Amino acid sequence: MKIHSVVGGGGVKLHVRDWGKADAPPILFIHGWSQNHLCWHKQYESQLADAFHLVAFDLRGHGMSDAPEAREHYTEPRRWADDIAAIIDELGLKHPTLVGWSYAGFVICDYVRAYGQDAIAGINFVGAAVTLNSAAFGSLIGPGFLDHVPGATADDFPSNIQAMRAFLHGCTARPLPPDDYAMALCWNIVVPAKIRAALVTRVIDSEDVLSALDRPVLMTQGLCDTVILPAMGEQILEKCRTSTASWYPEAGHAPFLEDPLRFNRELAEFVSKARII
């Protein structure tokens, strides 16, 4: 494992780590709202590292990346796009597959809208969000997220703790093992409430990006997901002509944690095919 500091949009320093073979097909993992690169540990600690160049990082405002207070660092789409472009460039990733969980769906669409598709091989949307507006609340974004936003964004730390504990419990269809839950709670709670709040103030419609994608797209979605509802996955499939679906009947919002063996196998197959097309 190697650690990198990459300067992204607006001068924000991003904490980046990579595993595996530098000359192997690259996979760039992008985590979600209030998360951390550690959420991908069942991928970078697996056999995927024997066949691929795995890269994961902490989004701006998360984990060990810079967390500037100014709201515009989180509400301007170009800054998110610049973050992804900077990592691809700095680490010399040649046509990486982008794997985006939850809020990372927005980040990937920000990148493609600004930089196009030429530099990537494909996209794996994982319980990914691509629409954020009032109409999406309840129809595409569910109670597993909406019920906990007030407490998670409050200027009151006990409220943050209570909300994030409940949110994390709701991310999986079955409870995580105690050690995994404790680690996940730690990486969730370190994100400042003001940053969590800033991320959800955006209004986003990604139809323009989805309809223009010609790179292969894998839509991975848990049917028991109450955070990002399966209807969001259906929207990706409807708008993106290059997309295929992988539904997890017994998984919630985190199929890569809930069924990592299947997830890793499907991801390896997708990356291998995406680089041939």
Automatic annotation (TrEMBL):
Q: Enumerate the transmembrane spans.
A: none
GO molecular function, a single term:
hydrolase activity
Quote the InterPro entries the UniProt record gives. AB_hydrolase_1, AB_hydrolase_fold, AB_hydrolase_sf
Query: Which of UniProt's keywords are assigned here?
Result: Hydrolase
**Signal peptide range in chain numbering:** none
Query: What range(s) does the AB hydrolase-1 domain occupy?
Result: 27-265
Q: Which Gene3D superfamilies match?
A: alpha/beta hydrolase
Q: Does the keyword Phosphoprotein apply?
A: no
Q: What is this protein called?
A: Alpha/beta hydrolase
